[in-house]
Amino acid sequence: MELSGGEIIVRCLKDEGVEYIFGYPGGAVLHLYDAIFQQDDVQHILVRHEQAATHAADAYARATGKPGVVLVTSGPGATNAVTGIATAYMDSIPMVVISGQVPTAVIGSDAFQEVDMVGITRPCVKHNFLVKRTEDIAETMKKAFYVATTGRPGPVVVDIPKDITEPGYKIPYHYPESIHMRSYNPAVMGHKGQIKKAVDLLLLAKRPIIYAGGGVILGEASEELTEITRMLGFPITNTLMGLGSFPATDKQFIGMLGMHGTYEANLAMHESDVILAVGARFDDRVTGKIAEFCPYAKIIHIDVDPASISKTVMVDVPIVGQVKPVLQQMIDLIQDSKMRPSEEALSAWWSQIDNWRSIDCLAYDRHSEIIKPQYVIEQLYQVTQGDAYITSDVGQHQMFAAQFYPFDKPRRWINSGGLGTMGFGLPAAIGAKLAFPDADVACITGEASIQMCIQELATALQYDTPVKIINLNNRYMGMVRQWQEFNYSGRYSHSYMDTIPDFVKLAESYGHVGIRVDKPEQVKDAIEQAFAMKDRTVFLDFMTDREENVYPMIEAGKAHHDMKLRVAPSAKTERELA
Amino acid sequence: MRHIISILIENEAGALSRVAGLFSARGYNIESLTVAPTEDSSLSRMTLVTRGNDHIIEQITKQLNKLVDVVKLIDLAEAVHIERELMLVKIHTTENSRAEVKRLNDIFRGKIIDVTAASYVVEMTGPSDKLDAFIHALDPDSIIEVVRSGPTGISRGEKGLHL
After folding, report:
1. Quick one: which H or E segment has residue B59?
2. pLDDT at position A570 over 70
3. Averaged over A47-51, what is the pLDDT?
């Protein structure tokens, strides 16, 4: 069978098992689009802006664990995709981005719609390729999928000059079944001696905590994490990216940690004597001030990426390997060991944690006559019975979603954690809905974020992806305003939007349903109504409290025990808590 | 502390910029960098001199290893090794100074590889501090230009950095 370069690329995608490709056509990829037109195996989803193609593919990957695939043209198509590529890179999401390039003969001549895509994306991809011969396409595609999905996953860009996809030039097609790259050998199994050392440390711990991140979800290790946590009886906290890796409604779960983490999670980290860090990277939003981070703790760190270990925080027992087999080995060792963690010490530790819990750090005014954003999330949780795929944009609404929608399953919480990309939520919801057409999918957003990719309402209609948009509309860029309130004496410099569209009419003009909600007593009905419309995308525009803040908050550069709370504990409670 | 990192890397377009980009993106400094293909033309060998505390050097080697094009690397400074640098110096000479420059060149075991009525070009290899010493021994006003390759290095003993 002889195929042209364009046909080879499409055929590679089919052989790789790709269901959807998210893209936008243009001059440099016309041959490729012609090849897509002539087949039905891979379905193309036409977005309205290339950034959305990357976010939708990214969310598809987060929801399914399979790599997301993107196709964009050269020049502006490629640069528009960069934000989404960087988003996937920061959160280690497997993704293959095919970008068109000007013909090989004119590369470097500042040709129309030419950019050095390999150069531009170098710092925000796991790897990238410029393919110069039709003969190299199939092998490069195999390498791209291999690199994107193994080790610490990440986005890979394959830049394809137009001439190598020329329909008139056909060659025999062969897609390699497997590939070996001498320079790329990701770690699998952890070091046995280190794992033994870690288990010994855990069994002797008196004030232990498990701190688990997105790596557990990427490494499909939620079951093992849940098993070891229950086995040891330790408290567990999740990073923003790790939410859902352990059931959040379980009593051992003490909430998210970090800048907007719970009082109990942050204090338990601060006071702990042994930390088991699993697939987490000690991000600055988690650690706060490094010099005062967990001063009493010995730290065990399991990560597939050696460069993550001791990058910001020095650890005592590093274990490089895939989270899943390492946790399984630890479980086996604990089962074989006669030792168990001291019940006495653990029960004292738990009563300390329960004391911290008792201040109810997430409490908010439930009697308010204005809609509280937290209340909307709680009602969303009730209506969807905690089982929806939730995507979010970036800001206060993202933190409220993380705090008030407890995720019991992995891959349900889809947000831009590392890069913090506004505009992520709506295209992400479309990607998740395509992956799971029968599931409830909601995008929690704000009136600022949603406008960054609002054009994707058209994509949602075209491909019949009925998602529910939960717009927490406070007429401010809430998180920016909150920082300005705390740190700039309330000088709300450009965090206020004066000209906000009528979202109901906007949704209707895109062919969807729009509902505006002004009163707390209407919230639940509106959400129920939206989810009852199974086949419609519904835009719920909640007029929320303008000046609500996210608490607790560890301000940038402060330590875990230095939290700003909505209601500071009295001196008496503080003494009791200590 | 000064470290000399020796890297085997795929001899592919863009491999050098991946390494250079990593250093600038993460704020590490490069004192010198030399690169050329090895006896196996699919591989290049890079020698990179950098400075930093142990923590930074550990991160540098980990981040370099993470680059998909990097096959292997070692920090030569961790064991006994040999370093050599090539230098070419163009020196302005006068009738009075010619003999002195030649004598100095002999002491440092350099080679004079180009001669005009008013200049010499000296070729010299050695550890970087020897080359520094030669430069200091010259009359600064007589130096027309200095070209240095930056150090390359190899470990002592029978073990080596290869596939």
Report:
1. helix B54-66
2. no
3. 98
At which residue do the structure tokens 């009730």 appear? A382
pLDDT given for residue B138 in this prediction: 96
Residue B12 contacts A where some CB pair is shorter than 8 Å: no
Candidates A142, A143, A162, A433; catalytic one: A162
Q: What are phi and psi of B127, to 5 degrees?
A: -60, 150
**In this predicted complex, what is the ipTM?**
0.92
Six-digit token string for A353: 């944690």
Nearest CA distance, B161 vs chain A (angstrom)? 14
- The answer to whether B25 touches B84, Cβ cutoff 8 Å, is no
Note if A145 is an active site residue.
no
Whether chain B has a CB inside 8 Å of the CB on A307: the answer is yes
Query: Smallest Cβ distance to A182: which of B55, B63, B71?
Result: B71
**Catalytic residue status for A479:** yes
Strand ranges for A24-169 from DSSP E: 43-46, 68-72, 95-101, 127-130, 155-161
Say how many C-beta atoms besides its own lie within 10 A of residue A111's C-beta: 15
Question: Which two structure tokens, joined as six digits, stand for B156?
Answer: 């002592």
Residue A322 is among the residues annotated as catalytic for this protein: no
- Is B65 an 8 Å CB contact of chain A? yes
d(C-alpha A166, C-alpha A7), whole Å: 9
Enumerate the β-bridge partners of residue A45: A22
C-beta neighbour count of B95 within 10 angstroms: 8
Which residues of chain A neighbour B25 with C-beta distances below 8 Å? Answer: 123
With a pLDDT cut of 90, the percent of chain A lying above it is 96
Q: Give the mean model confidence (pLDDT) for residues A498-517.
A: 97
Q: What is the mean pLDDT of residues A188-217?
A: 97
In which residue are the tokens 């440092």 written? B108
pLDDT averaged over chain B?
A: 96
Distance from CA of A149 to the nearest CA of B (A): 13
Interface touch B68/A307, C-beta < 8 Å: no
Strands B143-148 and A538-543: unpaired
Instruction: Give the mean pLDDT of chain A.
Output: 96
Q: Which of B17, B65, B163 has its CB closest to that of A122?
A: B17
* pLDDT of A96: 98
How far, CA to CA in Å, does A120 sit from each of A34, A53, A99? 27, 18, 12
Active site residue A396: no
How confident is residue A576, by pLDDT bands cut at 50, 70 and 90? low
- Rounded to whole angstroms, the Cα distance separating A459 from A58 reads 16
Give the C-alpha distances (Å, rounded to integers) separating A528 from A517, A523, A538, B6.
Answer: 13, 9, 11, 63
- Taking only the tens place, the pLDDT of each residue in A359-415 is 999 999 999 999 999 999 999 999 999 999 999 999 999 999 999 999 999 999 999
Q: Which of A50, A224, A447, A456 is flagged as catalytic?
A: A50
Q: Do A181 and B55 touch (CB under 8 A)?
A: no
* pLDDT tens figures, A139-181: 999 999 999 999 999 999 999 999 999 999 999 999 999 999 9
Question: Exactly one of A117, A241, A452, A479 is catalytic; which is it?
Answer: A479
Neighboring chain B residues of A310 at a CB cutoff of 8 Å: 55, 58
Catalytic residue among A112, A135, A314, A339: A112
Ranges of residues in chain B whose predicted pLDDT is under 50:
none
Mutate to test the interface with A, among B44, B68, B161 (most CBs of A within 10 A): B68
Rounded Cα distance between A271 and A209, Å, is 10
Is the pTM higher than 0.90? The answer reads yes
Q: Based on C-alpha coordinates, what's the Rg of chain A?
A: 25
